[in-house]
Design a protein that fits this description.
Its EC number is 4.2.1.20. The chain is of the alpha/beta class and 456 residues long. The chain has a domain of 267 residues: 3-Layer(aba) Sandwich (Rossmann fold). The chain contains 19 helices and 15 strands. The strands form 4 sheets. It has a 7-stranded mixed beta sheet, with helices on both faces. A 4-stranded parallel beta sheet has the order 8-7-6-9, sandwiched between helices. The protein has a two-stranded antiparallel ribbon with strand order 2-3. The protein binds pyridoxal-5'-phosphate.
Length: 456
């Protein structure tokens, strides 16, 4: 018997609409609040940061939003992305489970991030914007926005979290190849960056700090807007092309997932694969278990508080209700830079609060071990962030083995790790630490959460 390994869709089968989970949720998302007045904000409050088309997507409750044709044309450079059946991994694990993975590393940047970088650049260009500022943790998002900026003739300025800037010099080189400028954060370019450096000159940086720097510059100039690579509703919605394609491909494989898994930093690739399946169940279809895999060093979903908090460390963003470790929390300098964010997407947090998803935290070393097992079986070297999803999928497959169950597991392999080989080297030489976060720092960051009366 020959085994089918890849499930491929034709370009003509690529989704024409993004899926908006806000249409199907049993309870609406809590309001976003103005940081000064603590009152719900309106579209105009966000206008200095984002073009109106994206703001309207942020608050839309329409189930489907059409993907503009120029965006679909660019998506065709790598989409539809392949779905694989991990036959060899199943064999190595000796599991009766069927493991599928949706591989987003085929994009030019090497991850899922261009799925939202392209539409964000498109809508900004349409609105007459000339320059975009942003942050990047792993370097994947900065690369993706730089790529998108080059296609839409936009200047791009990226604040890369200091540890990641030092760990991955070639990410910066790729961003520069696309024509972007990349600075380590905290930087001397912004008032906020300078204030952080004054207190701690060797600060490793965090996504929360890099966001503050990018926002500070965006609001200073009319021709400049800010782009965020995760967390926001419209970003998560753009990523649903992952799950929508996966649904078609699972049907081609005559299978349906019992468990859907994604790693969670800000929540975008997880939402991308999971939200279409959650929506399917909310509309009366088969329910899958949905599992978020996060790092034990920055466990917002499993250890954070579901509360109103700032999206950034400098407190320039609106307040959203989310699972948070506190906006001043600086996670240890682990190698999964894309997962070092103090908060979680409000939509993912809301789904957790509603009991629609589960979450589990995994240590850095155990995730690298899982990534190496995966690479030796399937050939792809996953990004350190994606290793968290691999680890969770392996744990589920081993549970199936123990229980003698032949469940179907689907996970998002959000990116490759070709720029992360220094981290793999450290793992092989035994120098990779399981950095625990500082409990005292967490308690302090949580005690500093803004006090916000629950809106009516
Ligand atoms: C490959 C990869 N996976 C996952 C993430 C985490 O982001 P998100 O939770 O938004 O998918 C990142 C972030 O940079 C990433 O580069």
């Amino acid at each position: 018997m020959t085994l089918q390994t890849k499930y491929l869709l034709d370009e003509s089968q690529m989704p024409k609409f993004w899926y908006n989970i806000q249409a199907d949720l049993p309870k609406a998302l809590p309001a976003v609040l103005h940081p000064g007045t603590l009152q719900p904000i309106g579209p105009d409050d966000l206008a200095p940061l984002f073009p109106m088309e994206l703001i309207m997507q942020e608050v839309s409750t329409e189930r489907e939003i059409e993907i503009p044709e120029p965006v679909r044309d660019i998506y065709k450079l790598w989409r539809p992305a392949p779905l694989y059946r991990a036959h060899r991994l199943e064999k190595v694990l000796g599991t009766p489970a069927k493991i599928f993975y949706k591989y987003e590393g085929v994009s030019p940047a090497g991850s899922h991030k261009p799925n939202t970088a392209i539409p964000q650049a498109f809508y900004n260009q349409q609105a007459g914007v000339k320059r975009l500022t942003t942050e990047t943790g792993a370097g994947q998002w900065g690369t993706s926005l730089s790529f998108a900026g080059s296609l839409f003739d936009l200047e791009v300025l990226v604040f890369q979290v200091r540890v990641s800037y030092d760990q991955k010099p070639y990410r910066r080189a790729v961003m520069e190849t696309y024509g972007a400028r990349c600075l380590p954060s905290p930087s001397n370019e912004t008032q906020y960056g300078r204030s952080v450096l004054a207190q701690r000159p060797d600060h490793p940086g965090s996504l929360g700090i890099a966001i503050s720097e990018a926002v500070e510059l965006a609001v200073q100039r009319d021709d400049t807007k800010y782009a965020l690579g995760s967390v926001l509703n419209h970003v998560l919605m753009h990523q649903t092309v992952i799950g929508l394609e996966a649904m078609e491909q699972m049907q081609m494989a005559d299978a349906w997932p019992d468990v859907v898994i994604g790693c969670t930093g800000g929540g975008s690739n997880f939402a991308g694969i999971a939200f279409p399946f959650i929506g399917h169940a909310l509309r009366g279809g088969k329910r899958s278990r949905i599992l978020a895999a996060e790092p034990a060093s920055c466990p917002s979903l499993t250890r954070g508080k579901y509360a109103y908090d700032f999206g950034d460390t400098g407190h320039m963003t609106p307040l959203t209700k989310m699972h948070t470790l506190g906006s001043t929390f600086t996670p240890p300098a682990t190698h999964a830079g894309g997962l070092r964010y103090h908060g979680m997407a409000p939509l993912v947090s809301h789904c957790k609060d509603l009991g629609l998803i589960e979450a589990a935290a995994f240590s850095q070393k155990s995730c690298f071990e899982a990534g190496v097992t995966f690479a030796r079986a399937e050939g792809i070297v996953p990004a350190p962030e994606a290793n968290h999803a691999v680890k969770a999928a392996i744990e589920e497959a081993l549970r199936c083995k123990r229980e003698g169950k032949s469940e179907t597991i689907l996970f998002s392999l959000s990116g490759h790790g070709h720029f992360d080989m220094a981290a793999y080297q450290k793992y092989f030489s035994g120098d990779l630490a399981d950095d625990a976060y500082d409990e005292k720092e967490l308690a302090m960051a949580l005690s500093g959460l803004p006090s916000v009366p629950e809106p009516a």
